[in-house]
C-alpha cells in the first residue's frame, strides 16, 4: 500500500484516518515487520557506515492473510506507532484537539529521556492533546533511539499517536509545530567556548535551514543545546521564513534555580517567589534580577535586606548549582533540565498568571529596554497561552542592573561576531575575553 | 528553636502550621545551613565510615538576625524542604487534600530518578494532593541522593512539600502511607536466583520490620526490587501489623509489554487491548494470559487466529523485551519501569474502568482460582480507587492456562522454601531447578 507523502498536519490526520478505514475493510492484518530492518534503513538513508540493526524484537513471523507495508513517511515510524488508527471514529476521543507534531533533537540523550515521557504523558500539552513525536538522533545514537521508541511503546500512553525516528533533520522536522533542539556536541576537554560556538553553530545553522524548509511555518523553536542563545540566533538567521519571535533559548532552569535560592535565603517556600527575570546570556555573565523579583508580593530587597548576598553570592549560587550537582550526583542535571523545558513550554501554552512573568531567551529587535537589536537575550515575557508572548514593559532598572546587563549584552555581541560566517553576515571575528561556560554545563 | 519529633501526618501538619506561624512572628529568618553538614550527618547516623559531605551549595553565610535550627525530624529534611510552610493559610491551597507521605527505597537509582519527578509533578496522585517524599538511600548513594533532592528543589513543584533523605529505613519509613521499594542489590555475574533471593530477601525482611514498626498501619507497599514476588512475601511476613493484602509485587511492566505485543500482532493501537492478566511470578515462568484478554472488546483468540504465535512466541516476546532494550539502549528500562509503577499506583487510587482489570502480584490466601495459599502471585485485580482492590472472579481457564499457572505456582512455592529462614518458617531448603530471571532484569 503506497502512502502519499505528508505535507501538513491536516494531511497527516487525513492519512491516518483514511488508512485506518482501508485497513478496517480487511478482516485481519498485521505489519510485515514492526521494527526497522537493516536493509530498509540503509536504503532510506543511503548510508554505508550505518551499523547493522538487528530485528529480534518486533520481527513477526506473520501468518496473517493481509500484509501491510511499512508506511513511506518522511521519517521512519516506529513499531506500534506505524499502525494506523482512527481518532475520529473513537467515541472517547471526540473532544481531543488536533494532533500536533513535536520534533526533538538529541532524542537519545538523558534530558530527552526525561522530557519525552513527560510530553507523551500529557503533562505538558494537556490531557486532550494527542501528539506525534518526531525524534532526531545521529548515526551513533540511532540504536539507542530505537530503545527509547521501544520504551515509549511499552508505556502505552493514550495521547502518543505517532513516533518517528531518524537522523536527517529534513525528514524528522517535517510539519513540526514545536522543535525542541536539545542535541549539541558536549564540550570536551580543551574545547573553549569559541570552538564550541563554531562546532555547535554549524549544527544549528543546518537545523535552522531544515526547519525553514520543512517545518510548520509557525513552528515554535526551543534551543537547549549550548551555547543556546547564540545557537538560537544562528538557527533563526538560517530560517528566514519562520518569525524570529518564535525562537527561544532556554534560561528557565536558571530562573527556577534563582527562585529556589531566593526562597532558601528568605526562609519561605519557593511558591512565594515570583517575577524573577534572568537577563542575557545562558553563561556566567547572566543576570538573575533581584531588583524586580518579589517574595510574597513584596520586593525582594525589602525581604532579604542583605545587599552583599544579593549582589555577590546570589548570582554565584545560581550559576554554581549545575557544577555542585555533578559533584553530588555524578552526572549533569537531566531531570530538572527536562522539568524546566516543560515549564518553558507550558508558559507559552497557558496564560501567564496575573502580574507575574517568565524568562526566555528571545530575539531583541524592538525590545523596550534599550538592549542591542538582533541578538537572542533572556528577558521577561508574558503569554496569553497561544504559543506567542510579549515582553513585559513595567520593569525597573538601577545602575547595578544596567551595568550587569551591559556586560552580558557585550558578550552576546561578541559571540555574534564569532559566528558571522554562520549567520550570513560576513567573516567571523572572535574576541571572546574569557571562558563563560556555566559550571556543569555540557 | 527546638522542634518536636513527629509521630503522625496530622502532627506533621500541625508542626508545620505552628512552626510557620512562629517563623512569621520574626521579621527576617533564614536556615543556618540548608544542606546537610558532615558533622550533623555523622552524629545522626552514628556512622564512622560515612564519607565527608561537602556543603558548598547551600551553605549560607548568614547575616540575618534570627537563626533557625535544622528541624530534628526522624529523617533529614533537605534544603528548601526544611523550610516551614503553612498550607492552611494559603488561600489557593484550601481545596488540597491532606499531605501524604511516600517512602521510596533505591531513591538514588535510575528508576527512581524518573519516578520521583512524576510523583512530585502531581501526575500520580493528582493536582490537589500535596506530597512528602521520604527517600531511602545507602551510605554509598547518599551523596547522589542529595543531588536528587537538589534537582527536586530546582524543579519548584508546588505539590512537593517535604523531602527527607536518609539511610535508615526505621527513620525514612516513619508514617509512610505508600512505600515504593525499588532498591535491591543488582544481580552481578555468577549470582544465581537462589543467591539473590537470600541477599535481597534480607533487605526486604529488614524493610518489612521497619514498615511494621514505624509506617502508617495501612501503608500500601509496592515491591519492585527483584525477585519481587518473594521479596514482597518476605516483606509482608516481617510486617504482621500491616494487612498482607496491602503488599504488591510489580508485574505491571509485563502487562504493559504484553498489551503492546498483542496490539502489534493484531495491527491495532494499544489502547484497544484490555483485560490482560500476568499470572504468577515476575520471572520467565510468568504467564501472560491471552485466553481472557480482549482486543476491541473481542476475545484475543478471535482476533489473532494464530495459536502457535499465542502459545509460544507471545510470552517470549514479552519476556525478551527487557534484554532487547538493553541491547539497543545500553541500559535497563528505567523510564518505562517508572511509568508502570505510576500505572500500578494509579490503578489503586482511581476506579478501574468498567469491565477491565489490572495485574498485580498480591497475597494468594483466599483467592478464588485454587492457587496455593500464602504466596505472592500476580493475578487480575479491580479497585474502587480507595487504595484497596479485589480479585476478579469471572475468569476462564483452559488446560493450557492451568498447566502454565501450575508451573509458575510451583516455582513460587520453591522460592518460598528457599527463604523460610527469612519468613520465620524454619530452615530454608533451596531446590530451584533453573535460572528464571527475566533477561535484562537487574
From TrEMBL, chains A, B:
Residue ranges of every copy of the Lactate/malate dehydrogenase N-terminal domain listed in the record: 101-248
CDD domains: MDH_chloroplast-like
Record-listed E.C. numbers: 1.1.1.82
Highest taxon, organism lineage: Eukaryota
Domain Lactate/malate dehydrogenase C-terminal: 251-421
Short name of any one Pfam family annotated for the protein: Ldh_1_C
A GO molecular-function descriptor: L-malate dehydrogenase (NADP+) activity
Protein name as it appears in the record: Malate dehydrogenase [NADP], chloroplastic
Amino acid at each position: 500500500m503506497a502512502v502519499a507523502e505528508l505535507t501538513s498536519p491536516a494531511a497527516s490526520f487525513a492519512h491516518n484516518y483514511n488508512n485506518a478505514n482501508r485497513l478496517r475493510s480487511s478482516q485481519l492484518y498485521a505489519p510485515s515487520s514492526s521494527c526497522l530492518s537493516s536493509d530498509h534503513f540503509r536504503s532510506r538513508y543511503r548510508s554505508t557506515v550505518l551499523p547493522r540493526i538487528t530485528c529480534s524484537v518486533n520481527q513477526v513471523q506473520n501468518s496473517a492473510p493481509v500484509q501491510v507495508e511499512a508506511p513511506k513517511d518522511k521519517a521512519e515510524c516506529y513499531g506500534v506507532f506505524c499502525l494506523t488508527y482512527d481518532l475520529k471514529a473513537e467515541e472517547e476521543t471526540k473532544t481531543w484537539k488536533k494532533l500536533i507534531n513535536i520534533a526533538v533533537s538529541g532524542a537519545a540523550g538523558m534530558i530527552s529521556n526525561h522530557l519525552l515521557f513527560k510530553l507523551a504523558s500529557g503533562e505538558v500539552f494537556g490531557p486532550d492533546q494527542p501528539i506525534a513525536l518526531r525524534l532526531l538522533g545521529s548515526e551513533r545514537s540511532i540504536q539507542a533511539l530505537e530503545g527509547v521508541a521501544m520504551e515509549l511503546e511499552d508505556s502505552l500512553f493514550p495521547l502518543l499517536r505517532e513516533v518517528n525516528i531518524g537522523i536527517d533533520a529534513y525528514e524528522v522536522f517535517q510539519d513540526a509545530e514545536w522543535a525542541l533542539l536539545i542535541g549539541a556536541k558536549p564540550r570536551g576537554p580543551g574545547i573553549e567556548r569559541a570552538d564550541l560556538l563554531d562546532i555547535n553553530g554549524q549544527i544549528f545553522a543546518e537545523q535552522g535551514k531544515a526547519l525553514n524548509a520543512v517545518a510548520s511555518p509557525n513552528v515554535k523553536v526551543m534551543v537547549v543545546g549550548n551555547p543556546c542563545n547564540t545557537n538560537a540566533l544562528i538557527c533563526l538567521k538560517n530560517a528566514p521564513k519562520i518569525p524570529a519571535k518564535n525562537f527561544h533559548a532556554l534560561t528557565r532552569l536558571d530562573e527556577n534555580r534563582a527562585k529556589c535560592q531566593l526562597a532558601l535565603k528568605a526562609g519561605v517556600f519557593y511558591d512565594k517567589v515570583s517575577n524573577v527575570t534572568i537577563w542575557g546570556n545562558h553563561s556566567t555573565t547572566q543576570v538573575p534580577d533581584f531588583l524586580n523579583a518579589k517574595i510574597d508580593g513584596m520586593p525582594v530587597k525589602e525581604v532579604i535586606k542583605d545587599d552583599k548576598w544579593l549582589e555577590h553570592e546570589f548570582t554565584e549560587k545560581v550559576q554554581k548549582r549545575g557544577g555542585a550537582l555533578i559533584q553530588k550526583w555524578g552526572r549533569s542535571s537531566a531531570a530538572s533540565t527536562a522539568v524546566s523545558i516543560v515549564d518553558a513550554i507550558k508558559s507559552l501554552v497557558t496564560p501567564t498568571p496575573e502580574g507575574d512573568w517568565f524568562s526566555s531567551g528571545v530575539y531583541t529587535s524592538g525590545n523596550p529596554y534599550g538592549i542591542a537589536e538582533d541578538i537572542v537575550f533572556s528577558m521577561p515575557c508574558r503569554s496569553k497561552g497561544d504559543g506567542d508572548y510579549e515582553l513585559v514593559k513595567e520593569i525597573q532598572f538601577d545602575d547595578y542592573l544596567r551595568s550587569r546587563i551591559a556586560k552580558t549584552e557585550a558578550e552576546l555581541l561578541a559571540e555574534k561576531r564569532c559566528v558571522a560566517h554562520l549567520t550570513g553576515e560576513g567573516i567571523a571575528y572572535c574576541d571572546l575575553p574569557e571562558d563563560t561556560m556555566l559550571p556543569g554545563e555540557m
